[in-house]
Batch of 2 targets.
Target 1
Amino acid sequence: MLVVDKGNEQYNNEFFYPWEAKRTSISYYRIQIRAMHQDKCVGAIVCKLDIHKKMARRGYIAMLAVDENYRKLQIGSSLVKKAIRAMVRGECDEVVLETEITNKPALRLYENLGFLRDKRLFRYYLNGVDALRLKLWLR
Ligand SMILES: CC(C)(COP(=O)(O)OP(=O)(O)OC[C@H]1O[C@@H](n2cnc3c(N)ncnc32)[C@H](O)[C@@H]1OP(=O)(O)O)[C@@H](O)C(=O)NCCC(=O)NCCS
């Protein structure tokens, strides 16, 4: 059970609910989960599940973002954990994502959850910043 306090505001598990987890083809799923505070969406994660190199069932985290005013409340971590649970149910072998090598909050979040630095992708982003590919092996 997740309970987060910030001043007078308190969030619990009801704060989070599945937005959409829909199957779009036999080998491809899309997972989207958002974090709500009252009527406001304050965080979201978007992922896909597909087959990598005809071998591994790969979960890919395409987007994760938390509203600036709601950061450091474990909302991002909770969204990633929920997405990983959906990927486990989808029998994924691994989860991967890319993040800027300079993105300390994201690196801390993912490394706390057991992701490892798998590859450095030089000048991966349009702004010239390198990316790190992070990976979590599920089995
Ligand atoms: C990255 C992001 C999603 C983190 O969301 P969040 O809800 O604040 O994350 P959490 O509260 O779950 O924090 C996870 C860990 O990261 C750390 N962290 C969060 N923000 C941090 C910051 N600005 N500096 C250093 N560490 C930070 C937290 O302390 C926590 O580690 P701890 O438990 O050891 O203290 C959020 O900062 C964001 O939306 N950034 C912009 C978009 C982005 O970069 N997305 C990721 C792209 S892959």
Note: The chain has two helices and nine strands.
Target 2
Amino acid sequence: MEGRYPDLRIRFRPGHVQVVQADVFFPNRRALITGATGLLGRAVYREFKDNNWRVLGCGYSRARPRFEYLNLLDTSAVKEFICEFKPHVIVHCAAERRPDIVENHPESATKLNVEASSNLAKVAAAAGAFLIYISSDYVFDGSNPPYRVDSVPNPLNLYGKTKLEGERVILQNSDNAAVLRVPVLYGDVEKLEESAVTIMFDKVQFSNKSANMDHWQQRFPTYVKDVASVCLQLTERKMQEPSLIKGIYQWSGNEQMTKYEMACAMADAFNLPSSHLRPITDEPVGATPRPWNPRLDCSKLEELGIGQRTPFRVAIRESLWPFLVEKKTRQTVFH
Ligand SMILES: NC(=O)c1ccc[n+]([C@@H]2O[C@H](COP(=O)([O-])OP(=O)(O)OC[C@H]3O[C@@H](n4cnc5c(N)ncnc54)[C@H](OP(=O)(O)O)[C@@H]3O)[C@@H](O)[C@H]2O)c1
């Protein structure tokens, strides 16, 4: 094990503190994160690592050098990987999450979002690992919010359908699994296009050009660090009370915003002008259909005392600061 995952060995550096990550210090605390190279997976990996879990993150095209390469479509590789690492929890973040790509590549998206999830659930169940499957508010049609965990799903697009089917196969193949539905995510992005929220920032900061912004779809932008904390809290509670945690959960930020309102809030957070932003109140046409307001009711987690919410203004500033072009003039204001 230590040969295969060298970052988990005990290292000694003369005159320095030991860097220690070994089973003897983290008994029963091994976590496997799929999609650890992605937006949410990176935050979940960090959250578990910072809280005394021995964590293994796996990725696909971006796996090396930081993470382990694991193609989730390779069923025997998945089995071998889990049998070797023996995780106590698996947080399954890997998915094809871009609705337009799913529409255009239905077969490969279904393989990853549904078939790979089904296989992972079977292997996790056989290994006795608690599995958290990250799902989406797009399982709902958004016409009659808010949506409770037991509200009837009705996905409008193929992405939502594959996530719903993913939920079904997870719960069917493991009685030691939880589904966690979340809405649109943002956080520390490698590039602005990585999140449907941060992607708007260049239109916000380059104010010499007017920009149309959707003002019809109602969203609840949610910070990945908050979701990561919820995954950790859910896992810790599961370890304390195994029979309590199972089934479907939902977590979401509580600030309702359209994309136009998010863009204005970004401008405000950096003291930038917003008069070039134009709200478009008509329902978008022609694109992949998306729900109007898929607001998630989070009371099931709140009643367990589980949750974390960072205000949008604070979290978006933290996330976008590296991408702010005019850093020098804004620096004195915020840092
Ligand atoms: N982002 C959102 O706004 C949002 C909203 C609601 C729900 N969700 C859900 O939240 C979860 C995380 O989303 P995200 O935004 O973090 O996604 P993301 O940034 O697009 O990351 C997707 C991850 O899947 C991995 N992956 C792709 N193909 C794979 C394969 N064949 N084998 C193994 N791994 C593979 C990618 O690895 P490489 O990059 O290394 O190839 C990457 O780590 C998903 O389940 C998504 O449906 C996301």
Note: The domain at 24-257+284-328 is CATH 3.40.50.720 (Rossmann fold).
